[in-house]
Design brief:
Blueprint lengths: L4 E3 L18 E11 L3 E10 L10 E9 L6 E2 L12 E2 L3 E7 L13 E13 L2 E3 L5 H4 L10 E3 L2 E4 L5 H11 L18 E3 L5 E3 L13 H11 L6 H9 L72 E6 L12 E4 L8
Antiparallel strand pairs: 1-11, 2-3, 3-7, 4-5, 4-6, 4-8, 8-11, 9-10, 12-13, 14-15
């Protein structure tokens, strides 16, 4: 499954050692009710984000899930009630606040009525501008479009790391015993490691928490990202995050030309196993992993924007349909990018 993204125009390097690829370390979470003459009653969440390396280029995306008690289903707190998506993008560590406006529209008058959870994901900012779209529709099989002009994309954010088994298990736990999205192959301790007991409880095999979730359908991926308030990247967004724009800081200042705008791999053009230095998780166990690897294990070879594992480990869904003039009638297929641990260099 892997990666997710959102853009500011839509309706969407340094790691924390124990949380790489997991939820970010949000601590000391409190909430209090406030009133104002113009905005009425609202809830202010306060928390500490203790993550070295958070910056404007590698910020945190923070979202809130809540439920009315007792026993109601959990839901995502709408970004519109937090103001806008800028309020959820955190560009520095430290003490932070989020404000839930318009609580009376949700029928809430006091804090005793709700339970809430804050979660954070590190993302990478991809600046607006042109990039070279090297893959062509249909994964490169439509020979009528063998050359693409530079493509322009507005700024957007994309997850720095692949979605882990631990993160996906939290999602299933919250949905409860009737959750969709778990498949028997996920119990495979070598290729995944997420078990489902007879009671309907989900259990991550010890040591597998930070490996990427596997065996998810496109619909599973979409449902998980809806839960986070995010979406899959388009194929173009995925590829720009992989290769970088023509100017790495964007087309406004144009001070940092991309030295390899048509690179073959996120790190450049060197083969993944050149000189027996392994730059991603590929077929065979010489890279140290016979199957998948913990996310970020090859972070020395991230993409130009600091996104890890864009080659190898697990293949990644994108938002786009597989649709070309060369392959007429292949309805229902989605584009997959990035290869996996089963692919040769």
């Amino acid at each position: 499954m892997r990666r997710f993204a959102f853009t500011l125009y839509l309706a969407a390097a340094c790691y924390w050692p124990q949380a790489r690829g997991q939820w970010l370390p949000i601590t000391n979470v409190t909430a209090h009710l406030e009133h104002s003459e113009l905005a009425g009653p609202h809830i202010v969440f306060e928390y500490d984000l203790n993550l070295p390396g958070i910056s404007a280029n590698l910020p945190a995306y923070v979202f809130v899930r809540y439920r009315k008690i007792p026993g109601k289903k959990w839901g995502l707190l709408s970004p519109e009630l937090l103001g806008n998506r800028r309020h959820e993008i955190i560009e520095s560590a430290g003490h932070k606040k989020l404000t839930w406006w318009g609580i009376e529209t949700s029928g809430i008058t006091n804090l005793a009525q709700i339970e809430f959870r804050l979660r954070g994901i590190q993302v990478a900012r991809v600046p607006a501008g042109d990039f070279r779209m090297k893959s062509i529709p249909g994964g490169g099989f439509d020979e009528s479009k063998s050359q693409k002009d530079p493509c322009y994309l507005p700024a957007y954010y994309i997850a720095k790391c692949e979605t882990t088994i631990g993160m996906y298990a939290d999602y299933l736990h919250e949905l409860g015993p009737d959750a969709n999205g778990w498949h028997p192959k996920m119990a495979d301790p070598k290729r995944c490691g997420l078990e489902n007991s007879d009671s309907g409880a989900f259990h991550v095999i010890t040591g597998r928490e930070n490996y990427p979730i596997n065996f998810v359908s496109w619909y599973d991926a979409t449902a998980f990202l809806d839960w986070c308030g995010m979406r899959l990247p388009t194929e173009a967004e995925w590829e720009k995050a992989f290769r970088g724009g023509l100017y790495l800081e964007g087309d406004v200042s144009k001070k940092m030309p991309n030295p390899m705008p048509e690179r073959t791999y996120p790190w450049g053009n060197d083969a993944p196993d050149k000189d027996k230095v392994f730059r991603c998780n590929i077929d065979g166990d010489q890279d140290g992993y016979p199957y998948t690897a913990p996310v970020g294990s090859f972070d020395r070879f991230n993409s130009p924007y600091g996104v890890c594992d864009m080659s190898g480990n697990v293949a990644e869904w994108t938002l786009d349909w597989y649709d070309t003039s060369f392959h007429v009638g292949l309805d229902g297929f989605r584009m997959v990018r990035g290869g996996s641990w089963m692919d040769p260099p």
